[in-house]
Write a structure and sequence with these properties.
134 residues; mainly alpha; 5 helices; globular
Length: 134
């Protein structure tokens, strides 16, 4: 793919991350999100559990959300090949740990996030061709 297209993919993946992760970054938005995910997992009768929210879960979700929000803004403002490649590696790790969590009893609702991680990770791992000078 052309480098200009690759940069659009990096920016799109960052926009997705910003929209999805922003609620994790703030205590007053993560609590209702957690409740909604627990409700969906129950309604859809998904295997695994969504544990009750405690202060440590809140802290870890807020820390993770804050870091991903800043990482997203970096990729929106500077969608470089380097940041795209690093993001692809991070997505591989996120997907791995999400699958690990589900296999160890976490709710399968996590797999909704895993699908996006894998899709954007594959796109950002693709071969890049330099654009011809015009």
């Amino acid at each position: 793919m052309l480098i200009s297209r690759y940069r659009r993919i990096v920016r799109a993946s960052a926009a997705y991350d910003l929209l999805v992760t922003l609620p994790f970054a703030l205590p007053w938005t993560f609590a209702p999100l957690h409740a909604a995910l627990a409700w969906l997992a129950q309604v859809w009768q998904l295997p695994g559990q969504v544990p009750a929210l405690d202060p440590l879960h809140m802290l870890l979700a807020n820390l993770l959300g804050s870091v991903v929000v800043v990482w997203s803004l970096a990729r929106i403002l500077a969608p470089t090949v380097l940041l795209g490649r690093l993001d692809a590696a991070a997505r591989g790790l996120f997907a791995l740990w999400q699958v690990y969590a589900v296999l160890h009893g976490a709710s399968a609702i996590l797999l909704l996030f895993t699908a996006a991680e894998i899709a954007f990770g594959v796109l950002q791992s693709g071969r890049i061709m330099r654009e011809a000078a015009r």
